[in-house]
Specification:
Layout lengths: L1 H19 L1 E6 L3 E6 L4 E3 L2 E14 L2 E11 L4 E11 L8 E2 L5 E3 L6 H9 L2
Antiparallel strand pairs: 1-2, 2-4, 3-4, 4-5, 5-6, 6-7, 6-8
């Protein structure tokens, strides 16, 4: 019984640590956006970070997406390097990596894209 309790404690501690790396940075009626603050890194001499956009209402079986973003701060540009959509069970559906041809996201005032850009370019 002690082993079962110890195993449960270790599992709870490990799970808590995994979720502790994510911090909410924006929430609206459509998306809850979190950043993995431990993932900040350089990508081709520009800042990059992983974010998770969880949809309040799933979209065609997709509950959300993890996105690896980079930004060109001097040019005020935000780019997606990779994306990993996931279903309502938390299972990843496919990966889409394109580091050689990053997809640009438009930055509009008070938008989710602008909030994500500000994570990278403070």
């Amino acid at each position: 019984m002690k082993r079962l309790g110890l195993s449960a404690l270790i599992l709870a501690a490990a799970t808590g640590t995994a979720f502790a790396d994510w911090q909410l940075y924006r929430k609206d009626k459509a998306v809850v956006a979190s950043v993995n603050y431990l993932s900040f890194a350089s990508f081709r001499h520009q800042p990059s970070v992983w974010v998770r956009w969880h949809y309040v209402t799933p979209r065609k079986g997709v509950a959300g997406v993890k996105i690896h973003f980079t930004a060109n701060c001097s040019k005020h540009r935000l780019y997606e390097i990779a994306s990993l959509p996931y279903d309502t069970g938390g299972n990843y559906l496919a990966d889409n990596e394109h580091p050689d041809t990053p997809r640009e996201y438009p930055i509009r005032p008070r938008s989710l894209n602008e909030a994500t850009y500000k994570l990278l370019c403070r």
